[in-house]
Write a structure and sequence with these properties.
Oligomer: single chain
Distance between the termini: 25 Å
Structural class: mainly beta
Number of strands: 9
Largest sheet: 6 strands, mixed
Number of helices: 0
Strand content: 35-45%
Order of helices and strands: EEEEEEEEE
Shape: elongated
Length: 131
């Protein structure tokens, strides 16, 4: 969430020392049978942060905040990844590090303060599939 607003919401960035910014609150929970070892944060499809889970097999895998500096209106997506096999009843894949355990719908951020979220336009995304 950002400012208490969750996926699908549009929020306004605040102006910090480095320009527009938001504080992203991460609260990753799930059954202990599905491990989460890290969380990736994507801004306009670029991976801007990787955060290690604090309890991969716990009910609450991670609870933290991340300050994000923005240069333009943005959509922010969070994906959670694990390394262990999925529990019985879930599809198994050969390379579990490349598939997220969960992906959250975007939160849209009006970074320029004009009251409208403007899509960033076509671009090449920057991210890594390495663990």
């Amino acid at each position: 969430s950002i400012g208490g607003q969750g996926p699908g919401s549009t929020v306004k960035a605040t102006v910090g020392a480095g320009g527009p910014e938001v504080s992203l609150d991460l609260d990753v929970r799930g059954t202990p049978a599905i491990d989460v070892t890290r969380v990736s944060v994507f801004v306009n499809c670029d991976e801007v942060a990787r955060i290690a889970a604090t309890d991969a097999l716990g009910l609450q895998k991670l609870k933290t905040s991340k300050l994000l500096q923005l240069s333009q209106d943005a959509h922010i997506v969070v994906a959670a990844f694990g390394t262990g096999p999925m529990p019985r009843g879930f599809a198994q894949v050969d390379e579990p590090l490349r598939l997220p355990r969960a992906v959250v719908a975007p939160i849209f951020v009006d970074a320029d303060g004009d009251g409208v979220w403007t899509p960033p336009g076509g671009k090449t995304c920057s991210y890594s599939l390495e663990p």
